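Reviewer 2 asked us to include a model.

Predict the structure of this chain.
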Amino acid sequence: SALLEAMQERKISVGGEDYKLDDPFFVLATQNPIEQEGTYPLPEAQLDRFMFLVKVGYPSDDEESEIVRRMTSPATFKAEAVLQREQILAFQQLVRRVPAADAMIEYAKRLVRKTRVTEADTPDFINKWVTWGAGPRASMNLILAAKARAILHGEAHVSWDDIRAVAKPVLRHRIILNFAAQAERISTDDIIEQLLGHVGEKE
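Predicted model (structure tokens):
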């Protein structure tokens, strides 16, 4: 509940006193897919407050060599600031100012709504494999992430490609699979891949 309060209300409560968390504030969490003992999965309502679920695989050959080299040498490495607080806040506002045409917003919204088994026009594969689909935060985060990607790629507005590129990290933790999907080894990424092929840019 303390983590949820910090993420949603941007404050913490200690001894009956509220303390506001200064901007920029964000939460990073790690999830080990192997060591499960003593850990508990976060509830869906809390997962939904994370913008992305990013999968981190094994390092590349060169990366692993560098890890071994650094961690077995007497040298020390010090992290250095590359941005100041004011710069981060300015970049955050810049992202929000990137234009997203109504067609882009409608496309993002359609992708999200098609994940819900409650919709009349839900695809068959969603009804077959999904217990619970993504909520409105997914639509908002698809557009915000697409805006950020547009800037990083030197574009002045959101494109279809921006939305498709961020669909998996934005949606994969917001789609709850059923036992049938687990039995058939269907992943949320498989679902999203089918969804991107099913939902057209214009309908």
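The first strand starts at residue 11 and ends at 14. The chain has one domain: 31-198. We have added this to the supplementary material.
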